Amino acid sequence: MQKDVLEKAIESIKELDGYEIFTVPQQNFIYVVTPDQNVLCIYADTFGGLKASLEYRPGPNTGTGCRCTDGVFFEVTKEYIKYLEKEGLAFANQLGAKFYESPEGFFNRCYFRRLLTKVA
Q: What's the number of domains the chain is made of?
């Protein structure tokens, strides 16, 4: 069920202009690069639906990313991805997080960097 909801999200995002999607084999998450060059991690929730986090540079008081919403979501639209990005940025700024210069900065430090596959 987790894979199904993630596959549906991938298909929805593929239809959007300006977004890039990266997958990792055998994992229940995808990375989405937004037109504003932020990286969202969208992942399947254990109990159904999806959750998202905004990725930024690791810090001792901020961690490596923050959730964009408290709840789960089931449908991915351009408007909702923009909402997730906006909420994630607002919370990350509130935390005092430092951002990567570009998505490549994130991917160069990503644990799964050698396994990433660009699908769109």
A: 1
Return the amino acid letter for 106: F
User: Rounded to an integer, what distance in angstroms lies between the CA atom of residue 100 and that of residue 50?
Assistant: 24
Q: Does the reported pTM lie above 0.85? A: yes
Alpha helices in 1-120 (DSSP H): 2-14, 78-95, 103-109
Q: How confident is the model over 92-105, as pLDDT tens digits?
A: 999 999 999 999 99
Calculate the alpha carbon distances from 46 to 3, 33, 109 in Å: 11, 24, 26
Range of the domain at 101: 2-118
pLDDT at 1: 53
pLDDT band at 3 (very low <50, low <70, confident <90, very high): confident
Note whether 85 and 38 are within 8 A (CB): yes
User: What backbone phi and psi angles, to 5 degrees, belong to 78?
Assistant: -60, -45
